[in-house]
Amino acid sequence: MSVQTAYDKARAEGRAALVGYLPAGFPTYEGAVETARTMVDAGCDVIEIGLPYSDPMMDGPTIQDAVHQALVGGIRVADVFRTVEAVAATGVPTLVMTYWNPVDHYGVDAFARDLASAGGAGLITPDLTPEEGGAWLEASDARGLDRVFLVALSSTDERIEKITGVCRGFVYAASLMGVTGARSAVDTGAPRLVERTREIIDKGGTSLPVGLGLGVGNGAQAAEVAGFADGVIVGSAFIRRLLDAPDLASGLAGVRELTAELAEGVRAGR
Amino acid sequence: MTIDTARGAVPDATGHFGAFGGRFAPEALMAALDELTREFETAKQDPSFTAELDGLLADYAGRPSLLADAERFSEHAGARVLLKREDLNHTGSHKINNVLGQALLTRRMGKTRVIAETGAGQHGVATATAAALLGLTCTVYMGEVDTERQALNVARMRMLGAEVVPVRTGSRTLKDACNEAFRDWVATVDDTHYCIGSVMGPHPFPMMVRDFQRVIGVEARRQCLELTGALPDAVAACVGGGSNAIGAFHAFVPDESVRLYGFEAGGDGVASGRHAATLVGGSLGVIHGMRTYLLQDGDGQTLETHSISAGLDYPGVGPEHSWLRDSGRAEYREITDAEAMEAFSLLCRSEGIIPAIESAHALAGALKLGPELGRELGRDATIVVCLSGRGDKDMHTAAGFFGLMPEGEGK
Fold first, then answer.
1. Which PANTHER family does the UniProt entry name for this protein (chain B) (predicted)?
2. b vs e for A124-146, b when ≥16 Cβ sit within 10 Å of the residue's Cβ?
3. Cβ distance B239 to B279 under 8 Å?
4. Which one of A12, A26, A255, B305 is CB 3.0 to 4.6 Å from A66, fit for a cystine?
5. DSSP strands (E only) in B253-397
6. To which H or E segment does residue B247 belong?
7. Is residue A184 part of a domain?
8. According to the model, what pLDDT value does residue B150 have?
9. CATH code of A69's domain
């Protein structure tokens, strides 16, 4: 199921979609599945399952810590597919967010096949741009998967046009120049990036949603972002709740509370 | 003429060396990479830029570096070994060639800060040096393991005014320093240039760093003709990321009679799994923005590497080397820690030259190649060895390895 259906549903309800990120295997295989189910239950419209990778070049300390813990715990690519299967079974569209090498090494078509058969919606690829994405464009077409590329504050209009032209599901607008991690304020350039991206999408005559991520960590920020974007993407703030909790049960309670706060935020923003 | 690339057929306009290279980078960096590509292409056609770079290479770095017979070492190698003395450059290695070029480009782009990753510290020292010379702010990322084994270079960088940040993530070596430098860059790209130290990373870095380093081979080719009246039979260099090797090889690539040998860090031997010999023991993948050979596990996770040499302790390799390997134009072999240290000691005692442990891998390679080529050619072969750096920084490691510490300290 394309992620766009979740965006359409939110749009019909006059609100932004809430997209939650969590790496597979963190804090454990079971713990991640349980956390993702909690996020769905408390109001996430889309789940992104991170594929833990040894060299998370674009992640800040919080996601680095979580991913490291997942890898030390022995998480494998096969476990990521199992996680996707368990989360997608909730009925919420489930994407995998991954650096490119694990997909490349698995074989792009084989990865697409196994992701599709796990019920995954598609991929978010933070270090793959359309220029190097030929094999993925083909495989995602063949398997009917979403492909979410990123646009950045530094992207030219020409690049945004090229990127949104090949995105399916939504386009991920990176709200700031930097790595992942919650920030105290949403970058002032973010609304303009979403506006520019949307103008270019409109000109192309499609209804591709624009989700905004990086740095969003609380209900007030979610409301602010919901005021100009179609989706609000949150990652590190969920992980922080788990990292700071003495045990999984209280971590899950924290995640539930945060999800509810964010879900309220995406409804208050319009 | 320093950075003339008229004979280079690769990479293509999007940075691909055949199936290798390219640009696997976050969108946030694409504008900066495009700007850098344009600026480099313009600069190398600009006589004032090339004149300034050539001037710095001559009057600041001390180029051309010597190409000299190593007579007593040659007896052990069973070949005529000519040393390309990059160790005599200012800052003590070939790294200065690239850094001066990138620092000038940084200024040309109106940026005021440079960042760098470093393994052994040679590139960090070179970057800190160029930053001091040109009045740029400088931050160097260095794996914590490397800050310990190359403490002297940490002090050098700090003396030169650079901030040195020990990196405590992952394996705490060179690859993690690269990750951290990329994280810095994506947040600071408006005023900061990432001065990558090897022929690696997303396009245009592998091409640009090669073009700044190819002066090594351009000089060596001319000097060898002057000295011996002929081209060498082989050129040997150590390969971590591979910048001194590409620099030494590039001018010789069209000379089909000249064999090109890259020597990788074999650590305890490739079979042991404790090594950093990417082209000997790796498989195709993507790391740090480029498609290349890579040491990875079945899930595509980067493997931990091992080498006695911090500068070679890296799980990837420049994409042009992958291309030279697969095209058969160059051959890559492993040299173990023990073999490198034996060659290290031999050069000290036979020539009065203390090489960097990185360069000792190339020397060990020459000791193996000499007899092999001699048998094949029916005469003593001539081998140009790129002595990429000097070994002062390695005294702590060497003293430990050879048990030279007083009162039985060390190994």
1. TRYPTOPHAN SYNTHASE, TRYPTOPHAN SYNTHASE-RELATED
2. bbbbbbbbbbeebeebbeebebb
3. yes
4. A26
5. 259-267, 283-287, 290-294, 330-336, 381-387
6. helix B243-249
7. no
8. 86
9. 3.20.20.70
Taking the CA atoms of residue B342, residue B343, residue B345 and residue B346 in that order, the dihedral angle to the nearest 10 degrees is 120
Structural domain total, chain A = 1
Instruction: For residue B11, give both structure tokens.
Output: 């990479």
Angle at B375 between CA B374 and CA B380, to 5 degrees: 20
Residue A235 placed within a domain: yes
Interface residue of B14, B23, B24, B27 to substitute, partner A, most A CBs within 10 Å: B27
Of A57, A77, A100, the CB nearest to B183: A57
Q: Which residue has the tokens 């702590």?
A: B396
Residue B93 DSSP symbol: B
Q: Which domain holds residue A67?
A: 4-145+217-268
Task: Decide: residue B109, CB within 10 A, 0-12 exposed, 13-18 middle, 19+ buried.
Answer: middle
Q: Say whether A49 sits in a helix, a strand or coil.
A: strand
- How do the residues of chain A divide into helix, strand and coil, expressed in percent and rounded to 5? 50, 15, 35
| Angstrom distance (rounded) from CA A25 to CA A22 | 9
Cα–Cα nearest to B183, from A62, A69, A244, A21 = A62
Cβ within 8 Å, pair B300-A105: yes
Kindly report the number of other CB atoms within 10 A of residue B409's CB atom: 10
Spell out which residues of chain B touch residue A131, defining contact as CB-CB under 8 Å. 14, 22-23
Q: Is A166 on the interface with B (CB under 8 A)?
A: no
Query: Cα(A107)–Cα(B74) distance, rounded to whole angstroms?
Result: 48
| Residue A207 in domain | no
A17: in domain: yes
- Encoded amino acid at A148, one letter: V
Q: What is the mean pLDDT of chain B?
A: 94
With CA atoms as reference, the chain B residue closest to A67 would be B170
Q: Is A152 on the interface with B (CB under 8 A)?
A: yes
Closest CA to A22 of A67, A88, A78, A57: A67
Best A114, A177, A212, A214 member to test B by mutation, with max B CBs in 10 Å, is A177
Q: What is the ipTM of this complex?
A: 0.95
Q: What is the DSSP letter of B181?
A: H
* pLDDT exceeds 70 at position B408: no
For A181-224, what is each residue's pLDDT tens digit?
A: 888 888 889 999 999 999 999 999 999 999 999 889 999 999 99
Q: Which positions of A are annotated as active-site residues?
A: 48, 59
